Amino acid sequence: MEYKKIGETYYIRMDRDDEIIANILEVCKKESITSAVFSGIGGCKIAELQVFIPETGSFETEKIEGMLELVSLNGNVVSSDDGQLYHHTHALFTFKKNGQHGMAGGHLKSTTVLYTAEIELRPT
Questions:
Q1: Are 76 and 51 in contact (CB under 8 A)?
Q2: How far is 49 from 39, CA to CA, in rounded Å?
Q3: Is 74 in contact with 90 (CB distance < 8 Å)?
Q4: Is residue 36 within 8 Å of residue 124, measured between CB atoms?
Q5: Do 98 and 79 touch, CB atoms closer than 8 A?
Q6: From 64, 72, 83, 103, which residue has the greatest number of CB atoms within 10 Å?
């Protein structure tokens, strides 16, 4: 992972095997960012997507793998009173399976980069 700050915005580039959410939170820690919004695109190989089930009050998690084109990543980072960072992230992936194009999206728990990802992080 590499990043640089231009104005008030951080531009983060991630490479193969980088985990996107962990790296966003790491930049926030290093730069003392306690609240931010972010967006991004890229190519991933594994993603854990979640959907909240109101009846049970819990999340169901689905893991997808393969060449996953990250076409939309949007989220925010907030901190608790004790300084712990939390994220709320949604993502949409496209992929090809059995000769058909597909999409999967929802709440993103984690995703690992296949070849590259570009993230724009803006402190709030």
A1: no
A2: 17
A3: yes
A4: yes
A5: no
A6: 64
Q: What is the pLDDT of residues 30-82, one digit of tens each?
A: 999 999 999 999 999 999 999 999 999 999 999 999 999 999 999 999 999 99
Q: With residue 97 as reference, give the H or E element that holds it.
A: strand 85-97
Residue 121's pLDDT band (boundaries 50, 70, 90)? very high
Phi-psi region of 28 (alpha: psi -120 to 50; beta: other; left: phi over 0): alpha
pTM above 0.85, yes or no: yes
Whole-angstrom distance, CA of residue 60 vs CA of residue 97: 22
Distances in whole angstroms, Cα of residue 62 to Cα of each of 52, 58, 99, 106 = 12, 13, 21, 10
* Nearest by Cα to 88 from 36, 28, 16: 36
